[in-house]
Amino acid sequence: MNVQRLKYLLKRLGLSLVSLWLVATILFLIFRLLPGDPTTSVIAPQMSQQARQELAAQYGLTQPLHVQYVYYLKNIVTMNLGNSFQYSSPVTEIISGRLVNTLVLMVTSVTLAYVLGVVVGAFLAWKRDTRIDVFGVGIVLVMYAAPVFWTGMLGLMVFSFRFGWVPSGGIHSVTFVADGFWDNYISTDFLHHLVLPVTVTTLYFLSVPALTMRNNLLDVLREDFIEMMRAAGLSEYSILYRHAARNALLPVLHYAAVSLGFAIGGSVIIEKVFSWPGLGRLIWQATLAQDYPLAQFSFLMLATIVIGLNFLADVLSAYVDPRVAVEQANTGGE
Amino acid sequence: MDRDRRKLLAGVGVGAVGGIAGCTGTDSPDDSGNATTTATSNSSKKKTPDSDRVVTGSELEEYETVSFTMQSYTKSLLPQRYEWTHLFHDQLVNKLGVEAEVQIGQVGQIFDNWVNVDYDVNMAGWSGKPSRIDPNTFLSAFHTDGGLYTPNYSNPEYDELVEKSQRETDREARKELVMEAQQILAEDVPVVFLFADDALAATNTANWSNYTSQIGDQNYVHVWNLMSMEPQGDLPAIKAGTLFPATLNPMAPTKSADLMGLKMVYDRLVRLGPDGQPQPWAATEWTAPEPDTFDVTLRDDMTWHDGEDVTPEDVTFTIEFLQEWGVPYMKSFYDPIESVEVVDDNVVRFNLESASASFTGVNLALLFILPKHVWDGLPEDEGLEHPKNYNDTQYVGSGPFTVNTFEESNRVVFDVYDDHWADFNVDSFIWKKYGGKTQALATVEKGDASWVVNIQPGQFERAKQNQGVEANGVSQHGWKAIYMNNARRPFDDKMFRKAVAHATDKERVIKLVYGGRADSIEGPIPPANDFWHNPDLPSYDGGEEKARRMLFEAGYRWNEDGTLLMPKE
Predict the structure, then answer these.
(1) How far is B440 from chain A (nearest CA, A)?
(2) Model-level pTM?
(3) What residues of B are in contact with residue A169 (Cβ under 8 Å)?
(4) Is the preceding omega at residue B490 within 30 degrees of 0, hence cis?
(5) DSSP states of A246-293 as a string?
(6) What Å distances lie between residue B107 and A168, B197, B520, CA to CA?
(7) Does this complex have an ipTM over 0.90?
(8) pLDDT one-digit tens code per residue, A190-238
(9) In a 10 Å sphere around its CB, with 0-12 CB exposed, 13-18 middle and 19+ buried, how is residue A142 labelled?
């Protein structure tokens, strides 16, 4: 069985690497197929065609496409990602600074959403078909359906513009001075800026774990072993949270890994609304400015995170639930 | 798009352009994503032509339909331009009977088409950067060899005037030539000059006072304002906005925000004053012994932020360093300099390739001075491909500010450099980036930031209601125009272009889209640029009647549906 598991995991790893290579290639092509070129965003009215050529040459865009592609792949493999067109500094440096900001916001939100969501989902399942359940599911669905840019703006209008309880955006006050790196992220000033965006995104992400948990738990609660426990005289609370919930949790965990990946990639809107200097906004700007190195590698990094977390979820599933590896190996795939 | 498809689209009302004519901001075609959407007008809205102007039957074979595409940007990118594109489209369809389509696209596509003159009609605009106050930028944009952006317009008489005005170093004499050049453009109508909309801004007056305005759309982020501003207590001056410098490396700028940040740290020989005219800064005076030679006298009390003296050799080094390595964004400013030398104790001589009257107002006002002792040999020592990749910079300049903190895409904290000769009431200047103008304006209203520029009319109205905030519209020298490709039919016909100008009702659009806060223009130098503006240009307000009569006299006809026809070539 261990051989089977190993075979299964190696296969998943291989597929992940092929996916990454495909993504990298598509990214390379897609940016070069977009109308316009990177010199457009730099172009100044006084600029001559000659200056434009010079700029393209500095960017390495005058080389034939296949040569650029080879350089590009080489750069990925050696992790030497080159310099951003706009910032003129190394892509890795720019991305890592922004990634921290995004992670702080998104990991906090997703964690909160999954912890709260699981509890809420279990609670709703326990109260199934009561008024609380109907009402609760309704609220969760509304939060899921409401776009974050809208709830975000609404939150800003009420809590910032009207009541002045929270700042209107950014991660620090204008005049904030940090005492070292960590002070950037643990100071009250930062937490004050974090409250609203975290609340809005948590409420948005909450719905998936809550609804998944509720549905799984409803299935589990119908299983025979629950009846057995009831018969054994265990308390409802103990049955729900100690025994049933554990069994219902697995798919939720799987979602958690995947949605963290999507949260990091999908942070652009929330970052724009809250002026959050994170990765999402960086990617958006880099794409608009056709800053190839920056845009390509940020997207590639997102893809790596999503594919990586998926792979991780596969690994975890294979260990937590051995049936997965056996079934997959026997049926030869999906 | 073929005619049948166009008819079909018109029939099902794709684009719903008609709905926009009377009011603004409703019924818009989808503008999301990178996709291009096209809207076709409902042909039934064309006027029924007078019978003697209609051709029918076999005569029709000698004519072809006047049809063209009007390119413009997405609503999310440029909301006002999106609106007036559709308004003008409707005016041309209704009044002239042209077959016109609006093509909406992203900046990469539409701007590129404008630069490469790949369009029939492109709804274009020039922002009011300080470097464009000197008339040469805008006049050159219509010179036959004006480089990019010319709408394929060519008039030898005009070219000669522009060249002469570049050779004329006497301001008053140059002004005469500039006036004449504007006159020619107004008569030739290479593009339909529309308006210069006010730069709308809001300043917090509860915590700061004594702001100084500069014409154009980069207001307040200039030394004159930072010198005059008086804060409550020890507040810094704070700019809130969406623009933000990507780099403060003086060898790496690629956009105007970079220059706006760099000019705090690196001094220029000349700075443009509040009225846009060149003022002495690092240079105390300048003379032009020949139209292609400039002698610039350097101040003698300047030091670099590391304490070293600023010398004339730094100035000559800067130019040579720029020319050696190449900074494309600045190329047009250093390229015309053939050589540069120290001729006297504190005098630097610039020998230009050709006469350039705009040299002080543009080139010297845009080029920074770099410290030789920092940059000389630096790329070799650091093993850099290009000095633009130098990251470890301490930002040693000689400007009025040093860089305290530069957090990319978040904020820059500039501290006043105490040894600079200019005096400031603030100790520092903070430039803070926001995700949108709404958030930036809210910060100004709360008193956490001093000013925000280039806000939308709706935000402007809101700011006006707020005590402690002053909303002000500053007339500016940037302008908008309907660019017509003068090399394509029927825009190669001056009479047609004039008819389009007559059919264009700018006043209505100024009222609808800008709430009246824009100056109507007839040439490329708007009234805000008082010194160079020609106030006596002919205007095209004949309206529909005049436009249709002109077209008829020029040989244009209509078919029975009211569609405009031009004789086949």
Answers:
(1) 8
(2) 0.79
(3) 434-435, 439, 443
(4) yes
(5) HHHHHHHHHHHHHHHHHHHHTTHHHHHHTT--SHHHHHHHHHHTT-HH
(6) 29, 20, 25
(7) no
(8) 888 889 999 999 998 888 889 988 888 888 888 888 888 888 888 888 8
(9) exposed
